[in-house]
Every structure is written in C-alpha cells, then in structure tokens.
Amino acid sequence: MTGLVLKLGPHERVLINGAVIENGDRRSRLAVMTPNANILRLRDALHPEEANTPVRRVCYIAQLVLSGDADPGEAKFQLLRGIEQLSQVLKDPDSRELLAAASRAVVENQHYHALRALRGLLPREDRLMAVGRS
C-alpha cells in the first residue's frame, strides 16, 4: 500500500483538501492515496495566537498551506527562510535532522511532512524558552 496512512482515534477530526472529516466511534486507519493532498489533523492545529515562538510561527505557515489559507508558492519562500533562521539557532544533530527533513519536504511541496518534522522541534524549543525565562 502506498500513500499516507492516517491513524485516527474515536471522533478525531482531520481536514483533507478543505473538507473536515470526523472519525466514528472506533479507532481507524485511512489510506490517503491522492498525491499532494492537503491534510491537517485538527487536534494538532495551532490557533493564530499560539504562533508566538519561532518554531510555532514556521509551523503555522505550513498549516496555512494545508488548510488552503495560504498560496503554496508564496509560503515556500517564507517556510524556507524560517527553516534557515531556525537552523542558525538549533544546531544539535536531532534538530538539524528535523530541519533538513522539513526543508526537503517544503522543496517537494509535501507540506504535511514539513509540518510533522517542524512539530518535532517544539519540545526542544519549549525547553530552550523555559531556560531563557529562568
């Protein structure tokens, strides 16, 4: 089986190409066979006011592409610039790997994969921000 496989919990919602789809009472798996489909798990969606840190701002741009609220061509430049800026600060090997994966995904117009890689940076950013506030 090829394509993206989504594992959904009971009543979990997902946005696929602008349509909100809600799972039923049981866990399920969906195989999305259409290449380049725009997919966003609504439980992972950031609200505009939550895009208040460098990583969250870049995640939010990718999310806007997936929700259909931003032009992918215009967002590509913003995403790549944001990833480059993050790479100037996040220099550890794990962060570098996630940033490289996000960058490749943006270049290949795979915004779901870019968002997924960028979200992997959130725990590290949270730790760094907490240390900065202490």
Sketch the major β-sheet: 3 strands, antiparallel
By oligomeric state, this entry counts as single chain
Strand content: 15-25%
State mean pLDDT (0 to 100 scale).
91
Q: How are the secondary structure elements laid out?
A:
Elements: E1 4-8, E2 13-16, E3 19-22, E4 28-32, E5 39-41, H1 54-67, H2 72-87, H3 93-107, H4 111-119, H5 122-133
Antiparallel strand pairs: 1-4, 2-3, 2-5
Describe the fold and architecture.
- Helices cover 49% and strands 16% of the residues.
- 21% of the residues are buried.
- With 134 residues, the protein is an alpha+beta fold.
- Strand 2 and strand 3 form a beta hairpin.
- The radius of gyration is 15 Å and the shape is globular.
- It is built from 5 helices and 5 strands; from the N terminus they run E-E-E-E-E-H-H-H-H-H.
- The mean pLDDT is 91.
- The protein folds into 2 domains: 39 residues, no CATH class; 88 residues.
- The strands form 2 sheets. It has a 3-stranded antiparallel sheet, with helices on one face. The chain has a two-stranded antiparallel sheet with strand order 1-4.
